[in-house]
Write a structure and sequence with these properties.
This protein has about 325 residues and is mostly helical. Strands 1-2 form a two-stranded antiparallel sheet. The two termini are about 25 Å apart. It is built from 14 helices and 2 strands.
Length: about 325
């Protein structure tokens, strides 16, 4: 299927070269979005939903845009052409998915309310409850940012110490192995005693979830560095601090970024739990609040937001990794 949708109908240009005249994946995806728009407008809803016309209009607009792109692919820059071809199978899949989703929920009722919501139901959530969701996003980003960056900072410093000092490793690594497998949420009763407020306790839960993998992977990265580098540095008169900053730190970065990716996912996984500790706003709090009142459309809409934020942060982390580890091009993926 992916081989078919990535193809394009060729034509011979003035230079005698074959150039794409029609982007097949764009046409197929345009048909998927057009079918979704038609079904949304023409078939009656089993249960009334808001934003039906708006959702149909958005799908129709996407269908027209994709059709225009499919017809004018050859006129676009080469980089844009490659990006569109790479995204082609996903665009086709999204069009088909929206069509089946709309049909099975709003039109046929195979997936009934309130447990399932059609696409326009999620769109209605963003329109009707958008201001409160925006406030929750800001609160969640504040909690996550404080917890994540404090956690990875402490975890990285701990990992450097464990990887550099054999004596510190002797005492610290068994404790880290003891604490590491314990879920961060299991420390909630302890946090109530040691922290002055539930907000600080929530920060600790998030920090612990991401700090442990960073510490373990940093220790592994420092330990994996060839000892010959240290021997050469000592022979040339380098002190310990120079060896740490110029050998241990850059040499451990590939392992550190693996820990950062793991910590990023773990921190988002515990956000819902962390915001149980007396939070008044936040995406995790919003999910719990709506679940209690069977507002599952709001829950699904919030989960999509959390997934989008996490995916954006992962992309940003990939860009940072590519910038910092450019000197290792060809050795890491």
């Amino acid at each position: 299927m992916s081989d078919i949708v990535e193809q394009s109908v060729p034509e011979i240009g003035r230079d005698g070269q074959w150039t794409p005249a029609l982007w097949v994946a764009g046409v197929l995806s345009s048909l998927g979005f057009a079918a979704t728009s038609a079904v949304t407008l023409l078939l009656p809803d089993v249960v009334p939903w808001g934003s039906t016309v708006l959702f149909a209009s958005l799908c129709a607009g996407a269908a027209v845009l994709l059709l225009v792109l499919a017809a004018s692919l050859a006129a676009l820059p080469e980089r844009v052409q490659q990006s569109l071809k790479a995204a082609g199978p996903w665009l086709v899949a999204i069009g088909v998915w929206l069509f089946l989703w709309e049909l099975s929920t709003a039109k046929l009722g195979w997936l009934p309310k309130p447990f399932f919501s059609p696409p326009q139901g999620l769109l209605q959530v963003y329109i009707a409850d958008g201001p409160r969701i925006l406030i929750c996003i800001l609160y969640t980003l504040r909690l996550w940012g404080l917890g994540f960056f404090s956690g990875i900072s402490a975890g990285y410093a701990l990992g450097l110490g464990l990887g550099w000092s054999p004596r510190f490793n002797y005492w610290g690594m068994p404790l880290l192995k003891l604490i590491g497998p314990v879920p961060a949420s299991a420390w909630i009763p302890v946090t109530f005693f040691f922290f002055p407020s539930t907000f600080h306790a929530s920060i600790f839960i998030v920090a612990l979830s991401c700090g442990i993998p960073v510490a373990i992977l940093t220790t592994s990265g420092v330990g994996a560095i060839n000892r010959a580098y240290y021997d050469v540095a000592r022979t040339l008169g380098a002190k310990s601090w120079y060896q740490i900053t110029h050998i241990a730190v850059p040499g451990s970065l590939p392992h550190v970024f693996v820990g950062l990716f793991m910590g990023l996912y773990y921190s988002f996984a515990v956000l819902v739990v962390a915001e149980m500790l007396g939070a008044k706003y936040g995406l995790g709090w919003y999910i719990q609040f709506q679940t209690a009142y069977s507002g599952y459309a709001n829950v699904y809409a919030t989960l999509i937001i959390m997934a989008a934020i996490c995916a954006g942060l992962v992309k940003l982390l990939f860009l940072v990794r590519g910038r910092l580890l450019g000197w290792q091009a060809g050795f890491i993926s």
